């Protein structure tokens, strides 16, 4: 009976630990890469939104001034 316990005990951890290590290794590398890419994308989106905000703020100001002048002249 002792040989059966050793055989069963040694076989189960080796297969699950090997599978666990492979899965963990792939997950960690992929997570790091995706986290870096996500950070870069977030930075690009933030810059893009700031540029739009500045551009639209200037043009909206001009639009409201033109509207006020048009109403004043009529």
Descriptive key words:
about 70 residues, disordered N terminus, eIF3h C-terminal domain-containing protein, eIF3h_C
What is the tally of helical segments?
1
Secondary-structure-based class equals mainly alpha
Bin the strand percentage: under 5%
- Count all strands and give the number: 0
End-to-end separation in angstroms reads 104 Å
Which oligomeric form is depicted?
Answer: single chain
- What level of helicity do the residues show? over 70%
Report the principal-axis shape: rod-shaped
Mean pLDDT: 74
Question: Can you give a write-up of this model?
Answer:
The chain is built from one helix and no strands. By secondary structure, it is mostly helical. 0% of the residues are buried. Mean pLDDT is 74; it is low at 3-23. It comes from Canis lupus dingo. Residues 42-72 form the eIF3h C-terminal domain.
């Amino acid at each position: 009976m002792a040989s059966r316990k050793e055989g069963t005990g040694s076989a189960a951890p080796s297969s699950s630990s090997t599978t666990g290590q492979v899965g963990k290794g792939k997950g960690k590398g992929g997570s790091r890469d995706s986290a870096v890419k996500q950070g870069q994308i977030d930075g690009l989106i933030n810059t893009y939104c700031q540029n739009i905000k500045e551009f639209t703020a200037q043009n909206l100001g001009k639009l409201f001034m033109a509207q006020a002048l048009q109403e004043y002249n009529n």
